[in-house]
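Single Protein Entry

Contents — chain, fold
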Amino acid sequence: MHAVRSHRRPTQKKTRIGWALGTLIGVVGAGAVVAPAAFAASSTQSTLGPARTISSGQSTTVTGSVTSGSAPVRYANVQLQASTGNGWAKASSGRTFSNGKVHFSIHPTRSTYYRLVFPGQGIKSASASGRVIVRVITDKGREVVKTAASLAGRPYRYGAAGPSAFDCSGYTQYVLKKHGKTLPHSATAQARYGKSVGRGSIKPGDLLFFGGGGRYSHVAIYAGGGQMWDASTSGKPVAKKKIWSNTYTVRRLV
């Protein structure tokens, strides 16, 4: 007798394979099946720096960058955010260059923390940098000069200590009082206050005393750049002018 071979099982196997291939082709044709790796989210890293310390009134620049792995994230919209009492708020916005970097010019009026935020782009995920502080140090000397300049044009009057008119020591007395320093109304007496400063170390806001031998006939406020603010003499209002004599000593009170 010859063995009888059944063709039933192979037929079922071919049917299953044909059905599976047909289904797969139909789904792919409909666009429902994609290569997962090609569309996986790509993580990013945002950085910002450096931390800086500046004087009040100054501007500075911080630089951020966005990368994905070792590659820069080019031409991406980013945001510089500043820390507030209520969280983070937009301080500026920009766009990365071809190297993934972006620069922001800022003018903080107080010490502030900043961060860079990349909101995401295409398959690239969002990211935020760590916080970076920009410290603002008040330049007390320059604040004194600002106060002195605010009184420009006030007339000179002997014995006057402001605010409508001044003589030399009345002027310096009035200006320094605005910054917490109490001085007598006399150039010679004022020269006993603060600390002595060499001319090579003179800074805006220092007091200049003209005279010698412990007696001084005039006092002014150093403005920087070889100039000073003073109330000089009758008929000449408070003004900024070039230092007119080499016979002076310097005292620093702020």
